[in-house]
Amino acid sequence: RRLSGNEQIMVQYLIDHNGNVEKLRILRKSSIKRINDIIEKTVKGWTFKPALKNNTRVKVWKTLTFTLKK
Whole-angstrom distance between the N-terminal and C-terminal Cα of the chain? Predict the structure, then answer.
């Protein structure tokens, strides 16, 4: 299957106290399932510097949009 045009895939992910992706939701999916699977696997493998609130590590939700161009 091929992209019919530009597509935007939007994901929301929860970064835990240690900077790992704990949960992931795909808010806007690609029409191609394989692309969704690749994005999910990739984002779940990312690590971040943990967010701080009052000098304490906290969980935080982030949203990111991937744009795929034909």
Answer: 12
Position 56, amino acid: T
- Strand ranges for the chain from DSSP E: 7-15, 21-28, 51-53, 56-58, 60-68
Among 37, 46, 39, which residue's Cα sits nearest to residue 11? Answer: 39
Length of the chain: 70
- Structure confidence by residue, pLDDT tens digits, 3-59: 667 899 999 999 999 999 999 999 999 989 999 999 999 999 999 999 999 999 999
- What's the one-letter identity of residue 52? L
Q: What is the pTM of this model?
A: 0.87
